[in-house]
Amino acid sequence: MICDVFKKVCRSPLLLLGTVMSWAIAPLPLWAETVQFQLLHLNDVYEITPIAGGTIGGLARLATLRHQLREENAQTFTVLAGDLLSPSALGTAVVNGDRLAGKHIVDVMNQAGLDLATFGNHEFDLSETQFQQRLSESEFQWFSGNVLTATGEPWENVPPYVIKTIYGEAGTPVQVGFVGVTIPSNPANYVTYLNPREQMTKLVAELAPKTDVIVAVTHLAIQDDHYLAENIPEIDLILGGHEHENIQQWRGADFTPIFKADANARTVYIHHLSYDTETEQLTIQSRLQPITEAIAPDPAIEQVVNHWQQLAFDGFRANGFEPEQIVTESPIALDGLESSVRNQGTALTEIIAQSMLTATPTAELAFFNGGSIRVDDVLPPGPISQYDVIRILPFGGNLATIDIKGQTLERILNQGLANQGTGGYLQMAGVTFIPDAQTWQIGDRPLDPQRIYRVAATEFLISGREVGLDFFTPDHPDVTLIETGEDVRFAFIQQLQQQWAD
Question: Is residue 301 part of a domain?
């Protein structure tokens, strides 16, 4: 490497028309040995099956794409930037006495050819036992530079970074380092988070003398990715996750590229990297690849996917669901995208909230946290199955009938509004916010701080575990739990059956 400054200063992003982005660093001399490799980059994968009515995503299609890329260049690595084990609708199914909890997706990824993965925050939705089991079952390499055990020790067989040796046609080796960090937003009691910015800085300093190319694999908010690009010039490429929507940005004096694909393998990024061993300069070409019906599913992987789906469906049936049963024919699209349900009401959230009111005849209003919707998808007009309901609300939870004094109800509603953009944003029925007056209306009347209101909510919400709502428990003097009822998903199914009955 001539020097990192020269290497970086010479890079200039050239945004091409269409979906291909390129970075070039000075003309390559004719006598150089150019070593080429590819990275297939995905993030936030919760479903093994296609979504959007079967038209988008699916790990069997991903396996086909990987095979095609490896035919072009055997030095192709499939890299996942966090969130794999949870949340998954199939993962909530109880099979042989325990939830699948990511077991299905690890098996599919083992056989589909995932090479490298760093942790996402949702990996730690699992219990410690489940998490350890998934690590031991993984045939791909996990790595993390900032997530340790509760005692501050590295996880077994989880290094902070991985170095891959890539070879040119003449046998010249190039060392490529992959270092991973995770957003510290899910503080499970069996993990310790180190500061991701500080750790990346430290680990890149360790990697730089050992490697020719450094790839940061991150599961961070985009602002943290910006920081890494702007403050650690040795990083050549950032493969990110967490945002769920595709991103392509350049930050820092050296125009370090940052990429994130769409969640659930709606899209992936394909990065073609060429490293000149004479000039020690790097060229990167990247394109966003939609995963659609145009890509045929790999038959062997499709068989594995179907096996796990049927096991999970049997588990759902044992708990009273008929996953393949059609509940209704929806005449409209139902928006369950995370970017929607954590910021505003949609037709989907209105139906769920109304189902809670319908199932609780004495309630005047109902609310639930938008983060309980995990489908991150728009269900197109057409048939809605019970499995779609499970996909939408994978964790379910019982309905709770509660009495709340108006002054505390107002505090809850205000916090739910303040939680906009997070999973704690409250979706509601029977209550309206009046922006001009900055007040709430219950039914057709202003909220009375002294009155007692009958409310339908979910058991999770009254546990005090939602953002800013730690006071919302039956221990609060203004909150009285009257009773708990059925799983909210059964209420939702009943509402769907009635919604378009005419």
Answer: no
